[in-house]
Design brief:
Helix content: 40-55%
Oligomer: single chain
CATH architecture of the largest domain: 3-Layer(aba) Sandwich
Radius of gyration: 19 Å
Number of helices: 11
Distance between the termini: 44 Å
Largest sheet: 6 strands, mixed
Length: 330
């Protein structure tokens, strides 16, 4: 099901489900549905698989034999990239931003199981990571390797095409359920998912509003990033769209008291609520904080009464088994 005329490699189990959440909806007093992109496959699944279908197709077409990508120590993107590379018989090098932990849990454990080449660089910004990647690419080329670099989160125009297609899939499912989608809520960590959805909504000629919940940067940064990635995506697809930062909706109130990659109190409360009402498991880095944002916005009356809200479950479950180890949930 490739609605976009671009090279693509099937890596995901699609379509993912669009499920009503009746118990949570009753609790919050608004209509909530889950788009189950935690079930895309590839080493426990998540949203990055949609992006990788296009990015790795490009890598293979260009003759790459080693994939380099980056992310945080508990990156879902690096875990799924590793799984996709193993499926395709490609070498993979993961450059992770942070200290090497004493024990490997969560995503790191899965990456070790897949025998990834994992390298840690403890620096404050991705600028220094990018410099290290440039040096590595030069070194690999000198060894007659053909490296292909995927930026953090796969959040570039080509990767965002995965969520243009994902938006088409979602609207087709909603039409089959005779449902209009008023809002689509998703976690924003690097901006690619939101960017693809923004393009997809416009191409599908729908009125749904994309609501981003930042788990990292302030909203002004993400408005710029999402608009830039969305514009790059539109250019790749050769469609005439103008997407500006002021068109993007992002809330940065739910990053949490400890910042990116650390569980927040409201995020843990949201994880518990969804688990106890719907039996759906969220994660502490992305979907838990995004759900905390959705719940708070409902309480503040942000969504019109009777609205249909789709929550993009972007996966990330392995992080639960690292970040909430030995932490009480009650």
């Amino acid at each position: 099901m490739n609605g976009l005329k671009l090279p693509r490699i099937k890596l995901c189990q699609l379509p993912t489900g669009l499920e009503p959440a009746p118990n949570l909806s009753k609790k919050l007093g608004i209509n909530i549905y889950f788009k189950r992109d935690d079930n895309t496959g590839l080493a426990i699944g998540g949203n990055k698989g949609r992006k990788l279908e296009f990015l790795l197709a490009d890598a293979v077409e260009k003759g790459a034999d080693v994939i380099i990508t980056t992310g945080g120590v508990q990156s879902n993107h690096t875990r799924m990239t590793c799984a996709a590379c193993r499926k395709l018989g490609l070498e993979v090098i993961l450059i992770l931003k942070g200290k090497r932990p004493a024990t490997f849990q969560g995503n790191l454990l899965l990456e070790r199981l897949m025998d990834a080449d994992i390298r840690f660089i403890d620096v404050p910004s991705y600028d220094e990571i990018n410099s290290a990647v440039d040096e590595l690419i030069d070194k690999l080329k000198s060894e007659d390797k053909r490296p292909y670099y995927i930026p953090v989160g796969g959040s570039v125009g080509l990767g965002a095409c995965g969520y243009v297609d994902g938006a088409f899939e979602l609207f087709k499912q909603a039409d089959m359920q005779d449902m209009d989608i008023d809002y689509i809520v998703n976690a924003v960590g690097s901006g690619g998912t939101s960017a693809g959805l923004e393009v997809g909504v416009r191409l599908a000629k729908k009125d749904s509003k994309i609501i981003g919940i930042s788990v990292d940067e302030e909203k002004s940064v993400f408005k710029q990033d999402i608009a830039r990635i969305a514009q790059d995506c539109a250019d790749i697809l050769k469609i005439d769209l103008s997407i500006l930062p002021q068109d993007i909706i992002v809330f940065d109130d739910y990053i949490g008291e400890h910042g990116y990659g650390k569980p927040s109190r409201k995020g843990i409360e949201a994880i518990k609520l969804v688990a106890q009402t719907e039996g759906i498991i969220l994660d502490p880095v992305y979907s838990g904080k995004a759900m905390a944002g959705l719940i708070d916005l409902v309480k503040k009356g942000y969504f019109e009464e009777g609205s249909n809200i789709v929550f993009m479950h972007t996966g990330g479950t392995p992080a639960l088994f690292d970040m909430l180890v030995d932490k009480k949930l009650d």
